[in-house]
Write a structure and sequence with these properties.
binds zinc ion; 32% strand; alpha+beta; single chain; 153 residues; seven-stranded mixed β-sheet; glutathione-dependent formaldehyde- activating enzyme (gfa)
Length: 153
């Protein structure tokens, strides 16, 4: 399904933190790593990779930093009231951020273009994967971005 008209809007579960995305996302990815399973309390994490400058946040976000497998520090931003995770970013200099896609107001059009860290995917999910698939972290995002563009038409 094509991306709905911009801006895309979304927010946390309680409504204290809201955001807008003014540009079309670069891609949508499902991550099956154990950290994403833990964070989402579910089977996988869903990420919209977007240009950092296209995102506007209303409300104050709390922050928690963790060291990713790559050794990079990943900054996790979440609503301090209800705890819902909204944004992951890899350092202040990064030109993209990863928005937690399930927090969009409209998720009816969402479909991940590809899957990463599939080595730890739950077995029932593994049967349904389509698009570029990576056992671990993707070496680059080019194929995931291309698959997304193709999906979007
Ligand atoms: Zn909240
Ligand atoms: Zn992950």
């Amino acid at each position: 399904m094509p991306c709905p008209s911009l801006p895309l809007t979304g927010g946390c579960q309680c409504g204290a933190a809201r955001y807008e995305i003014a540009a079309e996302p670069l891609t949508a990815i499902a991550c099956h790593c154990m950290q994403c399973q833990k964070q989402s309390a579910s089977a996988f994490g869903m990420t919209l990779r977007v240009a950092r400058e296209s995102v506007t946040v209303k409300g104050t976000l709390a922050r928690w930093d963790r060291k990713a497998e790559s050794g990079n520090i990943l900054t996790c931003l979440f609503c301090p009231v209800c705890g819902v995770r909204l944004i992951h970013q890899a350092g202040e200099a990064s030109v993209t951020v990863n928005l937690k896609a399930g927090t969009l107001d409209d998720t009816s059009w969402l479909k991940p273009a590809g899957h990463i860290w599939v080595e730890s995917a739950q077995p029932w999910v593994r049967e349904h994967l389509a698009g570029p698939i990576y056992e671990k972290a993707p070496p680059a995002f080019d194929d995931l971005i291309a698959a997304w563009r193709q999906e979007q038409g």
